[in-house]
Design brief:
Elements: H1 8-21, H2 25-35, E1 37-41, H3 47-52, E2 59-62, H4 70-79, E3 84-87, H5 98-108, E4 112-115, H6 118-126, E5 130-136, H7 141-152, E6 157-161, H8 166-175, E7 180-183, H9 189-197, E8 202-205, H10 208-211
Parallel strand pairs: 1-2, 1-8, 2-3, 3-4, 4-5, 5-6, 6-7, 7-8
Helix pairs in contact: 1-2
Organism: Paenibacillus lactis 154
GO molecular function: transcription antitermination factor activity, RNA binding
Pfam families: G3P_antiterm (PF04309)
Length: about 220
């Protein structure tokens, strides 16, 4: 069973993080710059690990669950003062049309959302949700797609996948001043450090072995 009481050793940082997170998009940016490490949770069995390593994480991305359980997951992380962002296209039974996003904002109440879709970013922003837009760079056309998308809407943060193309991150950084998270195919610390050195604000990973790593500016 997941422990729902923050450990004493984490409280001082959690209190600080809770105050920062209260400022929404600006808070997320500060947390990304502070810890530079995001846990992408793809399996419910990873919840415990994410709580264990909360002192090294900026926030968590929920990429698993369904409409019946997602509020419980969100509430769990909120109880530990860990910002949580829900990937709306990964949650079973959750519609990402206007009524679905209104339900997410008013009933589930995550700190924000992750999406690949321009229209979802626009709708979520109108509801006051912090937005993270995910892009996949599989070829040179992907860079053009990022430019075209950002011309239409400016999310609060962008996530670039896969992460194992750090030299391309430099080109993305030249395109925007938005915070950049780089994720996908990250399994080793050196891979994360390469991304951070090439312009990523933070990295995201589904590997608990990376969640425990410290990637603060003085650590890389």
């Amino acid at each position: 069973m997941v422990n729902q009481t923050p450990s004493k050793s984490n409280r001082s940082y959690s209190e600080k993080r809770g105050k920062i997170a209260g400022s929404s998009a600006a808070g997320l940016r500060e947390l990304l710059e502070l810890r530079r490490n995001v846990a992408s949770i793809r399996d419910v069995r990873q919840l415990e690990a994410a709580l264990t390593f909360s002192n090294t994480l900026s926030c968590v991305f929920m990429l698993t669950g369904n409409i019946g359980v997602i509020k419980g997951y969100v509430d769990l992380f909120k109880q530990h003062d860990i910002p949580v962002f829900v990937h709306v296209e990964k949650i079973g039974g959750l519609s990402f049309d206007q009524p679905g996003l209104e339900y997410l904002a008013n009933a589930i109440k995550p700190d924000g959302i992750i999406t690949t879709k321009i229209q979802v970013v626009k709708k979520a922003q109108k509801l006051g949700l912090t937005t993270i837009q995910r892009f996949f760079l599989i070829d040179s056309e992907g860079l053009a797609n990022i430019t075209q998308s950002l011309d239409q809407v400016q999310p609060d943060v962008i996530e670039i996948m896969p992460a194992r193309i750090p030299e391309v991150l430099g080109k993305v950084r030249e395109m925007t001043k938005l915070p950049i998270i780089s994720g996908g195919l990250l399994t080793q610390r050196k891979h994360a450090e390469e991304c951070l050195a090439h312009g990523a604000t933070a990295i995201s990973s589904s590997s608990p072995s990376l969640w425990k790593e410290s990637f603060g500016l003085t650590d890389v």
